[in-house]
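Priority: medium. Attachment 1 of 2:
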């Protein structure tokens, strides 16, 4: 049983014809490595290295504390937030960059629940959602005397009702890559007058987003994945303009104060989205994130999504032909998924270890998933061809059965 699959020459021809191919030169990637994990930690934009040198040597080293004003450090959370607003089609002043996704989820959930006391008994989410989303939701449910209702994706629509205080959903599932239709689910939530928070961690910089057109009111998202903001880059938080005035952060920090440097005893929230700031922003990380976001703004985002789809189709065609033991669990239909492809295999853990040793960095997600991220800015068709070629060799030789791959020794 042999299936036709594209040749290396065909892959190279597609790279040659790819209008985005030259973008890989804007990234610093290690020689010989095929990087399929940009959905977990985006690659390093080359320009960010100079930005970091400037941030340390000039802004910090020379400017010292003056840089809060002279280099507009103080305005950076909002400045970078406005840039991300462009990416997710929100308005200026609706996005702020701060904290981690985890903390932003906590702040947004707490703010919404406090604004609607006594409305509903449950926080609705999807079972198998990203762990931090589930943990934060469980914790805040307990604090507010609510019950966490984590149900299957197919049951969510039926569960929304008068008992629902709040819904929290991840737009693109971190493991399977399944994608919700934001407009449709938002419309359903609005019918029942239930607030809905979207986690855009695997969406921003990956799939088309339009917060305004889809009438999404609340979202959080990640800076270090497809936005290429660097390890531990701060996250973002989105609140639609009309909803902002009703919300106050449960973490009443001085940076979210209306006048932080008036140093008053009493707390008064900033009039704008800055009210969701808590403490002093991590400036070096924030400036690195700005580099990644600037790069994303420069790219043609429609072309990015078009190429992501082409990469996906190319990959699954090769995988079906050459690695049929690994089962695709990501929906093949483009409108139902994000920008990664996941494959199930009972031995996904050692297979991923062997693949990394073969110079192909994807990742493993418990219990049985090999996840391959498709980042059209710096990944080409020949990369995928070689990645599948190496994976096929690992499978055909049973190389993953070697003792060095037999037990988890480190976390990836
Ligand atoms: C990556 C990811 C996060 C990350 O949360 P941090 O607080 O930034 O560590 C949260 N939620 C989802 C859905 C993610 O994919």
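Attachment 2 of 2:
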């Amino acid at each position: 049983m042999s299936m036709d699959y594209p040749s290396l020459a065909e892959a190279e021809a597609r790279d040659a014809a790819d209008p985005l191919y030259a973008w890989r030169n804007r990234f610093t990637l290690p020689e010989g490595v095929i990087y399929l994990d940009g959905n977990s930690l985006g690659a390093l934009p080359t320009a960010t290295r100079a930005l970091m040198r400037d941030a340390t040597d000039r802004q910090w080293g020379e400017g010292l504390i003056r840089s809060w004003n002279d280099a507009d450090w103080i305005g950076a959370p909002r400045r970078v937030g406005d840039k991300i607003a462009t990416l997710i089609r929100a308005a200026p002043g609706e996005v702020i960059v701060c904290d981690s996704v985890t903390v932003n989820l906590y702040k947004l959930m707490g703010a919404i629940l406090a604004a609607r006391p006594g409305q509903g008994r449950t926080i609705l989410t999807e079972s198998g959602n990203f762990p931090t989303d589930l943990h934060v939701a469980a914790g805040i449910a307990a604090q507010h005397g609510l019950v966490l209702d984590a149900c299957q994706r197919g049951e969510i629509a039926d569960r929304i009702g008068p008992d629902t205080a709040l819904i929290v959903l991840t737009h693109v599932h971190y493991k399977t890559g399944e994608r919700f239709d934001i407009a449709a689910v938002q419309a359903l939530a609005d019918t029942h007058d239930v607030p809905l928070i979207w986690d855009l961690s695997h969406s921003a910089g990956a799939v088309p987003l339009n917060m305004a057109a889809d009438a999404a009111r609340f979202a959080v998202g990640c800076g270090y994945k497809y936005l290429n903001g660097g390890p531990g880059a701060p996250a973002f938080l989105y609140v639609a303009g009309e909803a902002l005035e009703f919300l106050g952060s449960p973490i009443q920090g001085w940076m979210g104060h209306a006048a932080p440097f008036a140093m008053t005893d009493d707390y008064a929230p900033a009039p704008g989205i800055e009210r969701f700031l808590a403490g002093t922003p991590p400036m070096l990380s924030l400036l690195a994130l700005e580099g990644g976001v600037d790069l994303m703004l420069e790219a043609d985002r429609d072309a990015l999504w078009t190429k992501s789809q082409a990469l996906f189709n190319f990959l699954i065609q090769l995988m079906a032909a050459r690695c049929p033991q690994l089962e695709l669990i990501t929906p093949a239909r483009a409108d139902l998924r994000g920008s990664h492809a996941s494959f199930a295999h009972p031995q996904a853990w050692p297979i991923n270890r062997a693949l990394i040793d073969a110079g192909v960095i994807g990742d493993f997600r418990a219990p049985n998933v090999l996840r391959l991220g498709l980042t059209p800015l710096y990944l080409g068709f020949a990369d995928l061809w070689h990645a599948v070629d190496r994976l096929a060799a690992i499978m055909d030789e049973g190389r993953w059965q070697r003792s060095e791959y037999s037990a988890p020794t480190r976390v990836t």
